[in-house]
Write a structure and sequence with these properties.
- The strands form two sheets. Strands 2-9-8-4-6 form a five-stranded mixed sheet, with no helix packed on it.
- The longest helix has 14 residues.
- The protein is elongated and about 45 Å long.
- It is built from one helix and nine strands, in the order H-E-E-E-E-E-E-E-E-E.
- The protein has one domain: Immunoglobulin-like (Sandwich), CATH 2.60.40.
- The protein is mainly beta.
Length: 123
Amino acid sequence: MRKLLIILLCVLAAAGCAKKWEWSVPLAVNSTDVNVPSNLAGHLYIPIYSTVKWNLSFDYGDSDIQWLHPDMTSGKGYNVCVRIEYDANPFPESRVAYVVIVPEDTSTGAETIRVRLTQPATK
């Protein structure tokens, strides 16, 4: 649903280029389900689009292992890319964590976003 809304906004913006256009979605991401590209250490980017200030944290579920490390934990802007370093997965099964993006002011209509990150198992 969110992707459809973003596509619709882009189409409307292209149709009305002569008018001043403002981003009207308070907080959005490209995808809420991301596969980490490797079981080895590396990094990936999560683009965040916002008109509101937000804070970022991680939810590791039942695990005590913090294997994700962002270059920023707050921001605001139309195309902010958060770089997330990830540790190698030493386990024989894949692991999952969530990037949790929370708007500072919920009165704007912005909702919390959870991006699921899945890292493959060690072979």
